[in-house]
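Interim report, section 4.2 (structural modelling).
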Amino acid sequence: MIEIQDIYKTFGDNKVLRGISATFKPGINNLIIGGSGSGKTTLLKCIVGLHEPTAGKVLYDGECFTTMTFRERVPIRKQIGMLFQNSALFDSMTVEQNIMFPLNLFTDMPKDEKLDRVNFCLKKVNLNDKNNLFPSELSGGMKKRVGIARAISMQPKYLFVDEPNSGLDPLTSILIDNLINEITEEFNTTTVIVTHDMNSVMGIGDHVVFLDNGEKWWEGSKNEIAHTNNKELNEFVFASKFMRAARAKL
Amino acid sequence: MFHTLGRYLILLRLSFRKPEKFSVYWAEIMREMTSQGIGSLGIICIISVFIGAVATIQVAFQLSSPLVPQSIAGSISRDSTILEFSPTISALVLAGRVGSSIASQIGTMRVTEQIDALEIMGVNTPGYLISPKIIAGLTMIPLLTIISVALGLSGGYIACIVSRNISPTDYIVGLRDSFNPIIVTVCAVKSIAFGFIITSVCSYFGFYTSGGALEVGQSATKGVVFSCIWILFADLVISSTLL
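Predicted structure of the assembly:
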């Protein structure tokens, strides 16, 4: 379980996050949603330690991550898997080397065992036999799937996903969403997904946190979204004609 | 300026933290040595032969007097090649070839979130990305300088055969005449210092890149320019201290 308590983040005079608190439980998909510039990615980076919060705490299973030194954070970081918006695969390595990289660095597994793990992860994301391709030879959707395979190679306890569907067609988006959902349920990971894709929200949003202008405005499940009276959330969710029509039918 | 210097020193300190796994770092060091050493061999060979040849022809031309023995041209050419041309000119060329490659490689990794991905995994990113490059620079650039010296002196010999300003025999006599081993020490110190400057300064500019493709290019340019300035400054300090 991950708890964030009263997180503030400022860049110079720009207050990006203003006192955000939330709890992300394991085994469900926790979504952070909001418009562009609302602070979703900054919040995610504060949670994983890529940004240091100006104030507030991030707790991983009760342990305060924010106050830990680099070395103290390493054991927690080994339990974190993250899929980046642009996949962030290592260009100079093949698919197999990308997935094997954390295993090489942090485990003493024999080579055969590491290869088995790589093939297991690739099978999980339906990319069998792509071991020797380089990232430049993959499509956007395939890169995302390799990113997921790398993220789960260390069998993480916490899975973070930044804009999983950006730049993907609707069918591939659904495939990626289903994959994340499957991994969350199968490995009981604490999954935190940052997105502004309403299809993802309505598809896999077990727990949704809505941010606007750096503040938390609403928290609930996908089933509660359609019936909320929160003005900011309604403006965001029902911005499109399609969503307004869908709500009218409810 | 102090802010930049402070960040540079902190980055260097972080680069030499204890590695997570030595075997992975060792593989990176070997990869960097191949990239920096073998990758730069061609350009170093070409410039060294030409610089050695041109230096010998020009010195022989300026000393063409019946009062000066011809072999002096060989001695002057040898000292200039070992003391200045091979270490400094090679380092300036390598700042362009190796330095820009390092800055743009690390800079691209930064803007495409590959460095963030490493940090999330718990990797000491300065250590993994920068220390192998510095270690490779500290070993390969002195080796390239040795090759450059040998080829520079050979270039001088070829120039003697082709130009006939000075006979090859006189050139060889000049090379052997009044040799002071301190010039080899100065050459070694310079090449080690230049190797460190090129790799660390360019890594610094690459590591702190922010933005996109345009900024990666700017970081590479800054890395090369600052490396060249620091190489010339270190050249002056080492020469005035050791000679």
